[in-house]
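TL;DR need C-alpha cells for one chain.
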Amino acid sequence: MNKLKILFAAVLTLTVMACEGEDCCVYPDECPTNIGCTEEYRSLLFQPTKDGQAVLLDSYYVKNLDNDNIYNFTNNDAHDRLAAYIVATDSQLDEVKRSGSTLRFVGSANNEVVIEQDFVVGHDCCHIVGIDGPFYGGN
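>> reply
TL;DR here they are.
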C-alpha cells in the first residue's frame, strides 16, 4: 500500500511540473484574472489586391464562422486611402477563441461580391491577434 501512495505522489508531482507552462492548461481559451493589459486599441487590417493593385470596395462585412456573428466596421480616412479594411478589433476579443476563430471577410463592389477571404484570429487575453491570413501590415 505504501508503494502505491509513493507512485501516486510521484505521478501527481510530475503532472504538476509538466503543466506549469502557459500552453498547458485545462481550459486553454481562458485567461488569467490578474493580467495587466495596455490601454491601446488594436485592429487587424486586410488590403485586398488584384494583379498587385489594391481593390476598392463599396461595402464589406466580416462573419465569425464559429458563432455566425456579422461585424460591420466603419473605416477611417487613413484606411480608406490605403484601401485597407478592418477584419477584427479588440471589440471582438470576447467573441473569438484565444487559440483562434475563423473570420470570413466578404467584400463587394458594384453590387457584386468580389472577394471572400478567411482569416484565423485569436487573442492574447489583452488584444486581438492575427494567427493566419493575409493581414495588411503584418502582425
